[in-house]
Amino acid sequence: MEKDINNIDKSKAKIKKRSQLKSIVYRYKKNKLAILGAVIFIVLIIISISADLIVDFEKDAVAQNMKERLMTPNEDHIFGTDQYGRDIFARIIFGSRVSLFVGLITIAISLTFGSLIGATAGYYGGKTDDILMRIMDIFLAIPSLLLAISIVAALGPGMINLLIALSVSQVPRFARIVRSSILSIKDQEFIEAAKACGTKNSRIILKHILPNAMGPIIVQATLNMASTILNIAALSFIGLGIQPPTPEWGSMLSDVKTQMRYYPYLAIIPGIAIIIAVMSLNLIGDGLRDALDPKLKN
Amino acid sequence: MLRYLLRRTFQMIPVLLGISFIIFSIMAFTPGDPAKLILGENATVEAVTELREEMGLNENFFVRYFKYVLDALKGDFGVSYRNKIPVFDELFSRFPTTLKLTFWAIFISVIIGIPVGIISAVKQYTIIDNSSLVITLILTSIPGFWLGLMLIMLFSLKLGWLPATGIDTWKHFVLPSVTLAGSCMATVIRMTRSTMLEVIRQDYIRTARAKGADEKRVILKHGFKNALLPIITVVGLTFGLQLGGAIITESVFAIPGLGTLMVTSVRMKDIPMVMASVLFIAFAIGIINLIVDILYAFIDPRVKAQYEKK
I need a labelling partner for A81 at 20 to 30 A (CA). Which of A277, B27, B101, B294 fits? Predict the structure, then answer.
């Protein structure tokens, strides 16, 4: 009888020993789809970093070669060529660079500003909170794609302007989620302890509150990056995003409508590239959410 | 109830003012002189100065904003830079097409999404549930415009069943509506499933079963009715997304709605048109949210009772 009790205590101790991070990783690893998403995303990152080693940017992805136009997939061009004779495989490879780069930078910028606004609002509360969040609510009342289009309308199309437009439209989403995480943390004892020690407010926010609110923020960032990649493609598709001849998945689709009756691969391949990238991020985001908060999963 | 309605309507005013201010500020940052934009590169300095004076561009930013709002209240959103017709007329003639497209898209996603969501909740972890999860995952990851291109390829070019462009008959609306419905349907399925899962674990469902009510009645009458509120919220929220998505879908199918108008206006730097379109859509979303809030009270007696007490 006594032995049994000892055993139970030991196993309990073992569970307690596992740090929070480790148990999150453990739960994430058990989710096969989430692992698949992570693997795909890592492969995409490797492809986009080593794009120059795989194909030549100037020669394959940008330079026009009318002799080889509209070739169906063959040995030399495994995805075929487009109406300007450019290799589609090369354009897809370099397109991953644009989508991931713009996506990551957008999330980094909007996360930074969103966190600052959300943290300030949540931490100080009262009037600061009211004013900041009402402004964010107004931004949220405009659909993100619409807001991005209005900003592009003012600044003109192009990669940098696209970056600004997409970042601005994501800021309120992060501000909201950061604020609500902060509200759930700021009344806990360790914050009071930090205050009692005379720690500066900015330090409390950056060093004590934000790290503890990271979970939901990371999930939101992953899912937002998925929708940002969709928005990059959509804006480029209607000619307001990345401008030709820069290879981008969405803009590759914008002028296929006249050709796709006879050359369907022109329309199919870039779309599949977008789906793979977006889906990998969605899988990671869902996996992280379940791993961070197993109670939510049903 | 009436007081609540009035209060909700008044709450829309500051939001709309805020949106108009944000959009007005963004547009004010546009590089280049609107007067030059209208008159063209070769215009004389005198002509540009005169037009600037006429358009009130020399005035203070806030004065200009104030004037814009006052005119907008009277239904005057300015004149298009591109073709000189009043912006409001153009918007008003195109809005019904976009609304029709959005309505059908939501209709399709609700008609298919809710039953699929209910079934996958009731049959949790079965093949049906898993395959519906995979479908929602794919639907959320597909770019809407690409789905549109694929549908055109299959149903217009290959099979020749449905037209790819235009708005003349109901047939023209089938492909665009299905395209637009895609992502919304995924949200509806996910939300229905998770809410239903929560509801069917409640005590009153067990009670209903214990009383011997048949399963169909338990699920639909006792379960679904209680899950309806969050589902309606989501459908209302996706309406905004749909109006945004309609911009892209309309370009794919060359539908003469608000979306194509916006895209051409942005390309032509037709600022009054872009501004009014965004405001118009934001206003429409505000109205939809208001309708959703009112629907709450009708569907859920608890919500209604809350307002009647006050």
Answer: A277
